[in-house]
Structures are given as C-alpha cells and as structure tokens.
Amino acid sequence: MDDYLVTQQDSAEPRLLVYSRTAGYRHESIPAGIRALRLLGARAGLTVDATEDPAAFTPAGLVGYAAVIFLSTSGDVLDDAGRDALRGYMAAGGAWLGIHGAATTEYGWPYFGGLAGARFARHPAEQTATVTVEDRGHPATSHLPATWAWHDEWYDFRASPRPRVRVLLTVDEASYDGGTMGADHPVAWCHEHGGGRCLYTALGHAARTFAEPAFLRHLGGALAWLTAGTLP
C-alpha cells in the first residue's frame, strides 16, 4: 500500500511522521487522513512519512522529525523499545499530535496517558453537535467561529483533561444524544508533557472530515503550533 512507506532518514529537510498502526478498532478514515496530512506538509515544504511499522520508533529513527502524529491508532502499537524511543524523542523537545482514535491507544502505558491528556471511554452514534471554541487565540482554532456545528463521533473520556491542559474546544452535550461527561466536555486541547509539546483533537472520525476546509485548518494550525512553523 503506497501510503504506508517510511523514507530513509538521510534528508536534512524537516519531516513529519504519521503513525497509524491499529491493534484494535481500525478507522476507515486513516488513508484519507494520511492524504490530508501529506497535503498540509507539502504546502509547508515538509516531507511526510507514514508507517504502521513499530520498528520506525528508535532513537535514530525519530531524529529529524518536527512532529510525530498518531492518526487513529488503537490498542498496543509500540514495543518496549519503541516506547522508550518516543519518550526520549519527547524529552529532547519533540512534538506529538494525536488525532481521534489516538486516545484509544496504549492503555497500559501511563506515560502515553499523559501524552494524550485523556483516555477514550465510549461514544454514542455519530451525529451533529455544537462545538464551543474555548480558546480562539490558538492557531488550531483561531479560524473558527465562537460556536460551530460539526458532525463527528463524540468521544467521552475516562476523565476530563482539565486542568492539566489548555482546552481549545468543548462540545455541548445538550446539542446531541448520548454524552456522559456533563457540562464540561473538552474535545481538543494542548499541553506540554515530558519535555515536548502535545496536541490532541478528538475530531476526525469519518473520511469526509479530512476534506473539510475547517478541519484541515484545524490540523494545520495544530501542526504550526507544534512545530513553531507556518502551516496553512
């Protein structure tokens, strides 16, 4: 499959690593997500490598990546050596972006829970809900209106990440059926963890999401903040 290719680590160009291995539920949107991230990277002059091979996670293998992106990963997707490599990458000032199913990953590894900020618990049926933009001063959300109608799969988390993170978006549970977190339901946030920058967005369930301009700008702004670069 052409989308799942790790290029050689011999380029001085800044790169992004997209990791989409699944050991549990697999989202059909993963190929669309990779294409979208390749587009965002190309617009910014960044090479985007995509893989599902845990062998990519070595200290040498992660050198040169401006950010590592977990795209709807699920279950245990790294071995012990890979976990150590990711921890070392973050300690050296790395950046991590988690998209949607990334919160369903590595439940047995406490460090990853801190990286993601919260762990997935459940979700109701995919539906339209009202999103509140809590922080319009962040590049990932500055383009959005104060409230935003969005169709997605609304994750409930085992515990709210607040106040450990900077919450960017919340969803109004009164605007859809099946939410269980109550009045304060974060769905996107950023923070620092283990020496590096992290951002997680629960949005991005369906393939069509990755063709929506508002969502692409959300991801582009997230990457701009993570890499301190300028992405559209």
Give a quick summary of the entry.
The chain is 21% helix and 26% strand. With 232 residues, it is α/β, with parallel strands linked by helices. It starts with 14 loop residues before the first strand and ends in a 5-residue tail after the last helix.
Write a structural description.
21% of the residues lie in helices and 26% in strands. By secondary structure, the chain is α/β, with parallel strands linked by helices. The protein has helices at residues 30-43, 80-91, 110-116, 213-227, and strands at residues 15-19, 47-51, 65-71, 95-99, 120-122, 127-133, 147-152, 156-157, 166-171, 186-193, 196-201. The protein is globular and about 50 Å long. The protein contains 4 helices and 11 strands, in the order βαββαβαβββββββα. The chain has a domain at 15-120 and 188-227: 3-Layer(aba) Sandwich (Rossmann fold), CATH 3.40.50.880. It has a 9-stranded mixed β-sheet. It has a two-stranded antiparallel sheet with strand order 5-8. The longest helix has 15 residues, at 213-227.
Task: Give the helix/strand layout.
Elements: E1 15-19, H1 30-43, E2 47-51, E3 65-71, H2 80-91, E4 95-99, H3 110-116, E5 120-122, E6 127-133, E7 147-152, E8 156-157, E9 166-171, E10 186-193, E11 196-201, H4 213-227
Parallel strand pairs: 1-2, 1-3, 3-4, 4-11
Antiparallel strand pairs: 5-8, 6-7, 6-9, 9-10, 10-11
